[in-house]
Design goal:
This protein is mostly helical. The protein has helices at 6-19, 28-44, 46-52, 55-60, 63-77.
Length: 87
């Protein structure tokens, strides 16, 4: 999966700004640069992430499934993903 294009990055920045509920000490340009750096880091480290996955999952999961797993772990870490089992 390739990095986000400029429009997708801009829309992601806009969505982040709408959803962020805490005060910030950085500019919109700083946020955009951080988003680009994050997107570029993910692209640069895709192979490493893939190699870290158990072989059975790595060889049978689609790229979308792998990316979804990565996103789910991140969303859970920040408290944005609740499972039905959480009650």
């Amino acid at each position: 999966m390739a990095v986000l294009d400029a429009q997708a990055r801009a829309r992601t920045v806009a969505q982040w700004m709408r959803e962020n509920t805490t005060a910030t000490a950085f500019s919109k340009a700083d946020l955009a640069a951080a988003l680009a750096a994050t997107d570029d880091w993910i692209e640069a480290n895709t192979t490493s992430f893939n190699q870290a996955l158990p072989v059975a999952f790595r060889t049978n999961a689609t790229l979308t499934q792998k990316n979804m797993l990565f996103a789910y772990v991140l969303w859970r870490r920040i408290g944005r993903l609740r499972a039905d089992e959480d009650g």
